[in-house]
């Protein structure tokens, strides 16, 4: 089935039927291993054996405002770990790292395996998409899942993620599994099941993996949308990013340093990376990566060179109180309606549009005060995007209990 679809003899509509069957019936673990292996076997496997040290990869299951990859890859590489990171495009209401990177003028994500290795040798890190020769089956099926309602299926998610991680050549893998309405795993039990499945798949293919279950009860950071998130990532690399984004990156980065053999424990890794942030080492590494992949390196020091939307629309609070809940998925859909994602497979992403939050969980709000700002280039879905954004915020009289940023770690 996988070979036929990759080769073109099985059309999209038949693969969509298969995906829907898996969505409803599931796969057992042996079948999930077989699907993962079939993905891998449709293309090449990157050989990084000639690179010194332990190679580490990182993956997030995706969330609203999740730009951790843009911070983690250069930051961890600045501490001496080789990071070869292959990412995907937007899925459903969550953003895609490749779409974000392409908002940097000239930045190339479509690298050959040879190019990928060359960039990694020069900079110690690479941020790229799947090459045409690397897991081509997943590249086709990934896009099809996005438009057929079959994204939120544990074996399909696990096979997609782990086939790329295994084919990417890394020795060890750190997985960020998002928990909450802003990701695909709304509840902790389901997120834990996915994490355990991916760690087991890693073991099956000879890769050590650790999964961090992190909160997606609200958007991560303040920015939602491609250029907006790149801007926020650069701010974080300069030591001035939002507290939750900075904290999560330091925690995930510590796990990557443990995996890479640089430190023995999470506290040491956290302190090392916090120092790298303050020294600007991660920002300097990002500048190297952007230049090596054909991007406009001056963007790193001047984010105003990123695409800018034509208009700003402020969404204001109708009442007063505390922000008790934020439906991150609604904000994700609102951003998608503005053009930051794809409603259909062929849609073009607008890099400039999106949303920035003016308030987060627990913040006090007065009547008429800004809850969020929409960055707009087209008006056709603006009213619906405004409505969804306003309704995403629940305002009440008492401050809420703030969920933990990290629930647990599975290895």
Structural class label: alpha/beta
* Mass-distribution shape: globular
Estimated share of beta-strand residues:
15-25%
What is the tally of helical segments? 15
Element string (H = helix, E = strand): HHHEHEHHEHHEHEEHHHHEEHEEEHEE
- CATH domain class of the largest domain: Alpha Beta
Summarize the structure.
44% of the residues lie in helices and 17% in strands. The protein is an alpha/beta fold and 411 residues long.
Give the helix/strand layout.
Blueprint: H1 2-7, H2 12-25, H3 29-40, E1 55-60, H4 68-77, E2 82-87, H5 97-101, H6 113-123, E3 125-129, H7 136-146, H8 154-167, E4 172-179, H9 188-204, E5 208-215, E6 223-224, H10 226-237, H11 243-259, H12 266-279, H13 281-292, E7 311-316, E8 321-326, H14 328-340, E9 354-357, E10 364-365, E11 370-376, H15 382-392, E12 393-396, E13 406-410
Parallel strand pairs: 1-2, 1-4, 2-3, 4-5
Antiparallel strand pairs: 5-13, 6-9, 7-11, 8-10, 8-12, 9-11
Helix pairs in contact: 3-8, 4-10, 4-11, 4-13, 8-9, 11-12, 14-15
């Amino acid at each position: 089935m996988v070979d036929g679809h990759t080769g073109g003899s099985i059309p999209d509509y038949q693969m969509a039927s298969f995906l829907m069957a898996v969505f409803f019936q599931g796969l057992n673990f042996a079948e999930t291993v077989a699907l993962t292996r079939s993905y891998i076997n449709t293309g090449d496997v990157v050989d990084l054996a000639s690179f010194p040290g332990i190679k580490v990869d990182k993956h997030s299951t995706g969330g609203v405002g999740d730009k951790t990859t843009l911070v983690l890859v250069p930051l961890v590489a600045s501490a001496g770990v080789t990071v070869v990171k292959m990412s995907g495009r937007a899925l459903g209401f969550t953003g895609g790292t490749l779409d974000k990177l392409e908002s940097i003028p000239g930045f190339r994500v479509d690298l050959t395996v040879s190019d990928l290795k060359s960039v990694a040798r020069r900079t110690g890190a690479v941020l790229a998409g799947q090459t045409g020769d690397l897991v081509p089956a997943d590249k086709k099926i990934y896009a099809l899942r996005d438009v057929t309602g079959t994204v939120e299926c544990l074996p399909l998610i696990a096979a997609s993620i782990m086939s790329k991680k295994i084919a990417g050549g890394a020795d060890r893998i750190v997985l960020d599994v998002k928990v909450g309405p802003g990701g695909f795993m709304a509840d902790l039990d389901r997120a834990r099941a996915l994490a355990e499945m991916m760690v087991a798949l890693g073991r099956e293919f000879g890769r050590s993996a650790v999964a961090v279950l992190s909160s997606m009860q609200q958007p991560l950071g303040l920015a939602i949308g491609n250029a907006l998130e790149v801007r926020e990532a650069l701010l974080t690399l300069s030591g001035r990013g939002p507290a939750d984004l900075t904290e999560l990156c330091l925690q995930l980065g510590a796990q990557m340093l443990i995996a890479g053999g640089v430190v023995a424990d999470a506290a040491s890794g956290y302190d090392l990376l916090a120092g790298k942030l303050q020294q600007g080492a991660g920002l300097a590494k990002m500048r190297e990566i952007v230049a090596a992949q054909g991007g406009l390196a001056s963007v790193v020091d001047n984010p105003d060179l990123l695409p800018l939307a034509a208009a700003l629309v402020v969404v204001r609070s109708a009442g007063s109180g505390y922000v008790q809940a934020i439906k991150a998925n609604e904000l994700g859909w609102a951003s998608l309606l503005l053009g930051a994602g794809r409603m259909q497979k062929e849609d073009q992403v607008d890099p400039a549009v999106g949303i920035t939050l003016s308030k987060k969980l627990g913040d006090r709000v007065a009547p008429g005060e800004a809850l969020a700002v929409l960055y707009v280039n087209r008006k056709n879905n603006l009213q619906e995007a405004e409505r969804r954004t306003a309704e995403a915020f629940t305002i009440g009289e008492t401050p809420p209990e703030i969920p933990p940023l990290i629930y647990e770690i599975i290895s």
